[in-house]
Design brief:
Blueprint lengths: L1 E5 L6 H12 L2 E4 H11 L2 H12 L5 H12 L7 E4 L5 H13 L4 E8 L2 H9 L1 E4 L5 E3 L19 E2 L6 H15 L3 H5 L4 E5 L4 H12 L2
Parallel strand pairs: 1-3, 1-4, 2-3, 4-8
Antiparallel strand pairs: 5-6, 5-7
Helix pairs in contact: 2-3, 4-5, 6-7
Bound molecules: BIS(adenosine)-5'-pentaphosphate.
BIS(adenosine)-5'-pentaphosphate binds next to helix 1, helix 2, helix 3, helix 6 and strand 6.
Length: 214
C-alpha cells in the first residue's frame, strides 16, 4: 500500500510516518530528510537546497522528483509513505508517472488538518538528540533527566536551521499557495481523506489506522 501524508509544516507527518514504519513495516520517503542528508554531505544538490530551505521556500520540482525516483527503486515491494511530497501539482503528476513506471499505485492520501497558530508553537519548540535523533519539545516533551537523551544517554541536542518563526511563516505561506491546490487532484479520485491533526499523537494515529484498515 502506497500512501501520502499531506499537511503543513508541523502538522505531524513525520511523527505519524515513523509510527507506520514501526507498526506496519512501511518505508518513510521524506523529501525533507533526503534534502537535509544532501546538505550534511555537502553535495551539489545539498548546497543548492540549503539556501532555499533556510528561506522556507520550495526546492525545485526536478530535484525532489529525482530524489523520490531513486529512493522508490530501493524499497522493493514494501509500502511507501510519502512525507512532504508531493508539494506542487507538477510533483503530484510526476509521482503518478514514477509509480506507474514501477507498477505501483496510490491507495490513500491523508491530509492532517491543523490550526496554523499551534504549528508555530510545535515547530519552534522542537529539538532532537544529535546522536540517535530521538525527538523532544521545549514544552511538550523534555528529556526526563536534564540534558540527557532518554533513549541513548547522549548529551548533545540539535535544532533544525529552518525551525524559527520567520521561516515557519514562509513555509506555511508556501503550503497555502502551492500545496493546498493539489488537494482537488486527489479529491476527484476519491482517495483523499481528512484527519483532525489537532488531537493527541495517539488520537491522530487511531484515525489514520481506521482509514488504512477500511
Ligand atoms: P520538511 O522536512 O518536509 O518539513 P515540513 O513539511 O515543514 O514538515 P516538518 O518536518 O516541519 O513537520 P511534520 O509535519 O513532519 O511534523 P512533525 O511530525 O515533525 O521540509 C523542509 C524543507 O525542505 C521545506 O521547507 C522545503 O524547503 C524543502 N522540501 C521538502 N520537501 C520538498 C518538496 N517535496 N518540494 C520542494 N521542497 C521541499 O511534528 C512537529 C512537532 O509537533 C514535533 O515536535 C512533534 O513532536 C509535535 N507533534 C506532532 N504531532 C503532534 C500532536 N498530535 N500533538 C502535539 N504535538 C505533536
Amino acid at each position: 500500500m502506497d500512501i501520502i501524508l499531506l499537511g503543513p509544516p508541523g502538522a505531524g507527518k513525520g511523527t505519524q510516518a515513523e509510527r507506520l514504519v514501526t507498526n506496519r513495516g512501511m518505508v518513510q520517503l521524506s523529501t525533507g530528510d533526503m534534502l537535509r542528508a544532501a546538505v550534511r554531505e555537502g553535495s551539489p544538490i545539498g548546497l543548492q537546497a540549503k539556501v532555499v530551505m533556510d528561506a522556507g521556500e520550495l526546492v525545485s520540482d526536478a530535484i525532489v522528483c529525482a530524489l523520490i525516483g531513486e529512493n522508490l527503486d530501493r524499497i522493493e515491494n514494501r509500502g511507501a509513505i510519502f512525507d512532504g511530497f508531493p508539494r506542487t501539482l507538477a510533483q503530484a503528476e510526476a509521482l503518478d508517472l514514477l509509480l506507474a513506471e514501477r507498477g505501483r499505485k496510490l491507495s490513500y492520501v491523508i491530509e492532517l488538518e491543523v490550526n496554523e497558530e499551534a504549528l508555530v508553537d510545535r515547530i519552534t519548540g522542537r529539538f532532537s538528540c544529535a546522536s540517535c535523533g530521538a525527538p523532544y519539545h521545549d514544552r511538550f516533551k523534555l528529556p526526563k533527566v536534564d540534558d540527557t537523551c532518554d533513549v541513548c544517554g547522549g548529551h548533545d541536542f540539535k535544532r533544525r536551521d529552518d525551525d524559527n518563526e520567520l521561516t515557519v511563516r514562509t513555509r506555511l505561506a508556501e503550503y497555502r499557495a502551492k500545496t493546498q491546490p493539489i488537494l482537488p487532484f486527489y479529491r476527484e479520485r476519491g482517495i483523499l481523506h481528512g484527519v483532525d491533526g489537532m488531537g493527541s499523537v495517539g488520537e491522530v494515529a487511531a484515525a489514520i489506522d481506521a482509514i488504512l484498515d477500511s
